[in-house]
Amino acid sequence: MPRRTRLALIAALALSAAVPAARAAQVSTSRPVVTVYTHDLGFVHEWRTLSLGGPSDTVRIADVPERIDVPSVRLSPAAGRVARLAYRYDVQSGDGLFDSARGSGVRVTLRGDRVVEGTLVSSDGAWIVVREADGTLHNVSRTSVDDVRFSLPPKRLFTRPMLEAVIEGARKGDVPAELSYLTAGLSWAAEHTLVRTGENTATWATSVTVDNSTGRDWSDVTLKLVAGDPNRVQQAPPPMPYMRATAMTEDVAMAKAQMGGETFADYHLYTVDKPATLRNRETQSLVMYETKKVEVTPP
């Protein structure tokens, strides 16, 4: 594997006042580009269509990773400007539902069919605090609970992660926008296989394993793999030299590759020739170089 190198990545996100109403953002037909680094990091560049109801409107952009790096998010509409950008994910777990329902009515059924009903005051991993109509407080152990029902769950309960953006200065209608961000949960590794077929002959092949644990699926994307271990720093890097690969070993050059390679600075970039699908919680193997015959020298 290539030696460890440094990659400078900077990110900042400015937030301002919120707008209550919101419209949904559609996924553009342009193919997203997903760049995967070797250790738990990916960079996504995609295109969305924002449906705006007027010169100042709020849109919600769904289908984003659960492990998105929020400060790295960049949204660039073709018209107007982003006045506010926020990340919303209210229910990542059962605890998230309790947090969102604080102050609303709750009915807690305990073992033995005992019921505590009232207003949810607070909760944590061990206890649920409920206030009855007469003001009585009940501190209920989570281990004794069989069922919890919320009588008035929050109306704006985000059960999937999404971005919420306030767009100002654009006209009513559909506006294309570029969206890019970093996300944890993407990794890849290469594996070289040499199978001996005779005294001086063998077959050699290379495959890559790509792992997706971001909380989101991607279909029909351009997949790029970067060899290197990035180190995120806080200041902008100097311009990075960029060049195409000019030399390859004879064996690699003669192999029928399914991935194109380029070098930039101390990194090597491989691009998968065909559109890829990355399903959440899936580890898949892709052919990097087709199997070819090679000669070996006995020890």
Output the structural class. mainly beta
Number of strands: 21
As a percent range, the share of strand residues is over 45%
End-to-end Cα distance: 24 Å
Cα-atom radius of gyration: 26 Å
Largest sheet: 13 strands, mixed
- The residue ranges in which pLDDT falls below 50 over 5 or more consecutive positions are 1-21, 235-258
Mean pLDDT: 76
Instruction: Assign an overall shape.
Output: flat
Helical percent range?
Answer: under 10%
Series of H and E elements = EEEEEEHEEEEEEEEEEEHEEEE
Number of helices: 2
Descriptive overview:
The protein has 2 helices and 21 strands. The protein is mainly β and 299 residues long. Among the domains are: 98-150, SH3 type barrels (Roll); 186-295, no CATH class. The strands form 3 sheets. Strands 1, 2, 3, 4, 5, 6, 12, 13, 16, 17, 18, 19 and 20 form a 13-stranded mixed β-sheet that branches. Strand 14 and strand 15 (201-212) form a beta hairpin. The protein is flat, with a radius of gyration of 26 Å.
Fold blueprint:
Layout: E1 23-27, E2 33-36, E3 42-52, E4 56-61, E5 68-77, E6 81-88, H1 94-100, E7 105-110, E8 115-123, E9 127-131, E10 137-141, E11 145-150, E12 162-168, E13 173-183, E14 186-196, E15 201-212, E16 218-227, E17 242-243, H2 250-254, E18 259-264, E19 267-272, E20 276-278, E21 282-295
Parallel strand pairs: 1-4, 2-16
Antiparallel strand pairs: 1-3, 2-3, 3-13, 4-12, 5-13, 6-12, 7-8, 7-11, 8-9, 9-10, 14-15, 15-21, 16-19, 16-20, 17-18, 18-19
Describe, in short, the structure shown.
By secondary structure, the chain is mostly beta strands. It is built from two helices and 21 strands.
